[in-house]
From TrEMBL:
It holds the Pfam family RVT_3. InterPro entries: RNase_H-like (IPR053151), RNase_H-like_dom_plant (IPR044730), RNaseH-like_sf (IPR012337), RNaseH_domain (IPR002156), RNaseH_sf (IPR036397). CDD domains: RNase_H_like. This is Ribonuclease h domain. Residues 76-136 form the RNase H type-1 domain. GO terms for molecular function: nucleic acid binding; RNA-DNA hybrid ribonuclease activity. It comes from the Eukaryota.
Length: 136
């Protein structure tokens, strides 16, 4: 982007003709340099990957996540099941918790969610358990 911006400014302010070939050469050079500095091959979106491949930059599209079946099992007769989770975006970062209570017929009998501000993932997980056990 900087090379395109510089070329634009030279054309506008210095009345120097924009050299697209030189600009694309410099952009490719910077992309390759950035690719060499990164650990391994960068994982990118498929559209970006197509563009980078045309520019001669090695990149790979991330593999689709493997879908695995899972099953929720209701609690024993007369019991309530508590499912809870806490998460933070970043570590630390903005965090929140969520809790769902279900009876032995799988009916939702209560739920809660709350933001926590900035904290770690571990603290968010612990807070989710505490909130769930306290029934708040």
């Amino acid at each position: 982007m900087a090379e395109i911006w510089k070329g634009r400014n030279k054309r506008l302010f210095e009345e120097i003709r924009f050299d697209a070939y030189s600009c694309s050469y410099k952009v490719r050079w910077w992309l390759r340099a950035a690719g060499k500095l990164s650990k391994g091959t960068p994982r990118i979106h498929s559209t970006d990957g197509a563009i980078l491949r045309k520019l001669g930059v090695n990149a790979r599209v991330p593999a689709a996540p493997r879908i695995r079946p899972c099953k929720w099992i209701p609690p024993d007769f007369g019991f309530i099941k508590l499912n809870c989770d806490g998460a933070a975006k970043g570590n630390p970062g903005p965090a929140g918790v969520g809790v769902v209570y279900r009876d032995d017929h799988s009916n939702v009998i209560g739920a809660l969610s709350m933001g926590m501000g900035a904290t770690t993932s571990f603290c968010a997980e612990c807070e989710a358990i505490m909130q769930g056990l306290n029934g708040h």
